[in-house]
Records
---
Amino acid sequence: MSTLQKYRTLLEIPDEMQLLTLGEGHTPLVRSRSIGPDLGLKNLFFKLETLNPTGSYKDRFAALALSGLLADRAPICLATSSGNTGAALAAYSTIANIPCHIALIDGTPMGKLTQMYAHGAHLWMLKDFGKDVKKTDEIFEGLKGIAREYNTGIQVSAFSTQPFAMQGVQTISYELCDRGNQPQDVFVPAGGGGLTLAIARGFQKWSLAHKALHTTRVHCVQPEGNDTMASAIRNGKRAAPVDKSTTTISGLQVPSILDGNDVVREVTETGGNGYLVTDQRIMEWQESLARKEGIYAEPAGAVSVAGLERALQQGEINVNDNVVCIITGHGFKNTSAAKPEVVHINEFKELKKLLNKL
Amino acid sequence: MSTLQKYRTLLEIPDEMQLLTLGEGHTPLVRSRSIGPDLGLKNLFFKLETLNPTGSYKDRFAALALSGLLADRAPICLATSSGNTGAALAAYSTIANIPCHIALIDGTPMGKLTQMYAHGAHLWMLKDFGKDVKKTDEIFEGLKGIAREYNTGIQVSAFSTQPFAMQGVQTISYELCDRGNQPQDVFVPAGGGGLTLAIARGFQKWSLAHKALHTTRVHCVQPEGNDTMASAIRNGKRAAPVDKSTTTISGLQVPSILDGNDVVREVTETGGNGYLVTDQRIMEWQESLARKEGIYAEPAGAVSVAGLERALQQGEINVNDNVVCIITGHGFKNTSAAKPEVVHINEFKELKKLLNKL
């Protein structure tokens, strides 16, 4: 049974709506064997959203988004994306049999373009979109106008735009609670903040429906170059756009306030906090995940671990707590930094010599 | 609970052995919405082995292989691979903390090299290995000798070499039976034949332990350019090596007899058959899976669907049967054929014009 179907009663979905699925959700929760102990944590787990059909948690959003578009007989799926939302929507559009058009953030990496194109999506890359805040907001408004002409909405993975489909992402929290092992702390990578908000709302919704063991603190982690929410949470301020996002971490570059103010309020209500991390440390944690834990994440997917490190440095986490880092997207989506070293060998005896030297 | 742990009693694993996991198995079984109906089939399902941790069914093998090497305190994981076995072993070697060395088949695609390298494996690409049968067999023997010097075996995903670890792959059949909906027919892509054999043995083992509903016919599908087993099954002959494999389908090029004769015998016992398909048809089915079913497979992963098409053309499948195609590996592993078409746009009004023309 799909995760949307399993938790249907915790989602506000019309009774008659048919739910599309490509096998999203039910992702593994894997105990850390190395990074957790190295950081002094007894119970660190990774939630592998990398193992969704298109390699990111956005499949939970897209499954519900396209179910809705199909029910509405929408003539088009029109979306904005830095890649992961687009790949997910492109895949689910095929089973809804709805043409998919994606306005891409300038600089979307090749791995994600390849995925979207494989699923037959129409790809439009717009200059400065997702980098310059004024241009980004203008394009959003323009796209909303186009969508209205088609009697549909624009697909953006944010509650501010698509509250219905974003409910799909709340299933992450339901899965974490359902194992009878609800965590004390969850670290979440944040760009526009939709994922963080979905996870906070998911725990809240679960605790209303079930006898919750305790509150789960939901923490919002951002790259320093795009601090739209993290400092605001820490300092009790409102979310604020940045003029120019300077982080290189694809997927977390959006300079606009999307779900920002709801994130600040609801993260604070969970007892969670905001954390800023450097791009360099994110890249180092990406490498550590792959080389120590066997988990191949894209850079954005490793941001949660960098945030956990900050929280521990600041003494804000109890080392006995059950802590979950959300690993949001698969490494294959953004391989620009990787240049595999391969030794080419013509004669077998050369290999024998090389191995004997090790 | 990991799939190896869940089905531990159906596997021959020493009681005291600790089983490593990265969340392998428990892969989705998705009903075809388009290809099945187009082919006239009422109940076609895809088993998405693409959604394993490193993107292929080889993770089921690697999880058990590294559990065994860890229990044996092996000093090295020495493997041969065309990419997927290597990526899986590289990932699980990190959590076993054992250095991983991979002798690569000549022509291993970049996506797979990137994965193996990300997990810190040492990569050796050997000229003509996996293409020329004489050279391939020589290199296999040489590697076995090196492994012996380290008091370990060579990691090849074949029962002929690693019968212990190959049991892990049998969990595919257990998962298919456990849903109470055991299929009548399963189509399996075959190179060396290990996957086909594991699936046949899995159904057999399940039927000994449980009251099986019926026999499942296991079908072996190969590209025409590497017919080591398919014709042999059909004609009641023995498996035979090919001098030079001419297929371009990465992962299914091995010209040697690995599990070939066991495959011929045991597939025949299930009532299954052998099917040959062209490289071109494989590529077309890969595209159809991505564009009609939202499933992004590597070319080898689409071979099962091409085989099913052949079987239907030859009138060898009952259209009311419950049929499963195994989709073995993810599209991101081999993107050489994909060149995404992206329209670059400087001003928003250009996008509006283009969309209005659609």
---
Amino acid sequence: MNPVLIVKTLSFLMLIISGFMLIPAAIALACGETRELISFIVVILPLSALSGWFVLSFRKRKTEAFSTRDGFIFVTASWLAASVAGSLPFIISGAIPSFPDAFFETVSGFSTTGASILTDVDCLPRSMLFWRSFTHWLGGMGIVVLAVAVLPLLGIGGLQLINAESPGPTVDRITPRIADTAKILWIIYIGFTVAQTALLMIAGMDLFDALTHTFGTLATGGFSTKNAGVGHYDSAAIEIIITVFMLLASISFSLHYRALTGRLRSLAGETEAKVFLLIFIISTMAVALSVYGESYPSFGESLRHAAFQAASILTTTGFATADFEQWPFFAQGVLFLLMFIGGSSGSTAGGIKVFRIVILLKQAFIEMLFLIHPRGIFTLKVNNGVVRKDLVYSVAGFFFLYIFMLLCTSLVVASSGYDLTTSLTTALATLGNIGPGFGEVGPTNNYAFFPDYVKWFLSFAMLVGRLELYTVLIILTPEFWRRR
Amino acid sequence: MNPVLIVKTLSFLMLIISGFMLIPAAIALACGETRELISFIVVILPLSALSGWFVLSFRKRKTEAFSTRDGFIFVTASWLAASVAGSLPFIISGAIPSFPDAFFETVSGFSTTGASILTDVDCLPRSMLFWRSFTHWLGGMGIVVLAVAVLPLLGIGGLQLINAESPGPTVDRITPRIADTAKILWIIYIGFTVAQTALLMIAGMDLFDALTHTFGTLATGGFSTKNAGVGHYDSAAIEIIITVFMLLASISFSLHYRALTGRLRSLAGETEAKVFLLIFIISTMAVALSVYGESYPSFGESLRHAAFQAASILTTTGFATADFEQWPFFAQGVLFLLMFIGGSSGSTAGGIKVFRIVILLKQAFIEMLFLIHPRGIFTLKVNNGVVRKDLVYSVAGFFFLYIFMLLCTSLVVASSGYDLTTSLTTALATLGNIGPGFGEVGPTNNYAFFPDYVKWFLSFAMLVGRLELYTVLIILTPEFWRRR
């Protein structure tokens, strides 16, 4: 363990975050939101001073490497520290006076969940709305860098699969060094941000709305600046743009890099992206056929709402244009099923992830082949490469732990007096970083009514889900802290 | 493949079943239920004649062995054929006039699920009530023999674990030959039946009720002969007797054999049974504390209902003494959680089974140890024996397939217009062979209202769950039928 290095790196992260806070501070200044401006300054000054001092005072030490153990601590601590720091402006300005609420909201932001305890966002000052959506964007970028460049090194739940097994240009090691990889990912992310913002403005949004909704989309977060969410605009063009970018944000950013650098041919074998899009198309059709004639008179309108909602849930974004709890139960069942899937690995999406589902399905099939031919030898292939057995193990372990955490979280929610549908989908929506669920946490509801202990636990669940379970849970085992 | 042998063995099974039908026929005769008597005779005569003819005509062939493939076909076909034959008296007598309904009820009986499409059992003729409960008893015995003696040979979902890995007296191979094993299991089963029936009669039930409720208990089925179920008697003594026998029936029958033959010492290391009882105790306490003061004024009464209901759901029996949907949501959440567990392997209980949960939990923990110490070597031990990696695989594959089937079944139910809670718990209650769920299929409801296609699918789900998924699903793959 190397506490000095961890603290130094965390301080560096805090310095960056306090730097990013200058943007909402500037917005507060421009909009004349004095109270909010003061709140940001009150946070930025001591935070940057303290973290800057830490960074500088430990500066001259010789180069040190992070151990795997340090990696786990750093990753968890960084999301935690960012959430605490990020919640301070909400508390100080009085936008969200209670700490559990503000912490929940900020964890929800950085974890790109999009579950909100706010009952009225329309009345929130612009600088606060911006900061809220901005946490999505920062968290989204953080998770892409983490998933593509850091987590595979830690060997979490099968994420190492891709770099270990893909033939040809390895997906994870876009470039050999993490810093370079991160830089490329930032460029793609910023490129998408500029593109979507521009398109949304062309479609009729003002710059502020376009930017905040772009943050919510690309991070697959789901915070909106309107009480009615994306439904507020009631514009097919806006919905189509957001649908497309939700899907893009849920496809591995490594693929985007390869696509943008012209290596289109290497994309043909990408099982995960293909299955992801197939799931999207099938579920959209299923939902559209279910709501057609029941909730909407025309098939076009049915398709529009179905595609948006299927994309929103599958990509774990959680935007809503319609109250899908009013839809036929079959359509709701399809969305419920999508909650168990999630986006692709190496993207900003949460959930179990498509590649894990693919591996588990293939493994279950191989298990059957093995029963038919007990002496047969079967190999599990993804993207034309053989998947090593220990990776399948890792994925299977992840899946079990996910369902286990899901049921435990449901029980905690139920303990506060909520029905089965609410409890289970609250757990799904937080652990999978989706946002809305069914029942009391449906698309027109929020998380305000839960007692504080449930909010704390759900904040924990959002972090656990976001950081691929093991990263956080491992720190809670005594074995992690035992010296060997 | 050996179709002749399969047909011959199936015919033998049909001969046995038509023989067993003589008992309800005799009851019909004794009670003066002419219509029912005729219905049984109309089934017994041609069925026994036809199957007897088949058995005799193929008699003199040389000894032939079942291949693994034949085993899968035979097991699935036997449950299917028994359910079709068993449903005939219901249809012919007019007790359950519709075939999908009668088939559902009989599958529910033989699979020891206990989900019923009957809205009023009080008015059913005694011979029909007896036959309905008797299908539980026969199915329960069938599954114990299957689980202990046959499925391990087929290598299903980790069930081979126990005989392959346990040290000392192997659990599965109580005696080397299947026929001998089956005989011992029958003796234990009949012994339990006599004991429970006698105790229930001492507690105040008449012979008929005692016998039918014993069938429902030992098979962990759940069919009652009263509309109010076990709650009808409102007797603490009866509930305690049933609770104890539900738990006994959910513990591996191999353990009972060892206990009865005095090898008590070898039981000490039995992880599955210990964990099973621990889960029962913890969930009983949790439910009792939740309902105390809320649903029942005294703690004693709370404990009584909590223990009965926790045992009923955990053992996948499904008897009810209270409408647990009126309980606080935390208590409901605990019962919901128990629905994902089920009883022990080698018992009459359904569900995922405790030993699979134990293995998956241990595996998830090992996965974490491995992340902390990437070069470490960790072995998964159960009952002091090392569990082979391919068995963990098998269990992990089973778990994924279970959740997958669960969600698919939920979607089918939802497609008929039922809410999430109803859809999901209907799937859980049928796939896990439990019986009651939540929502529209709660303990005071039944399955009568579902459209026929849902009843067919749920019948399928009950069979799939009962036969440990793979046995049935494997037959649906093209690979199974391909010649090599």
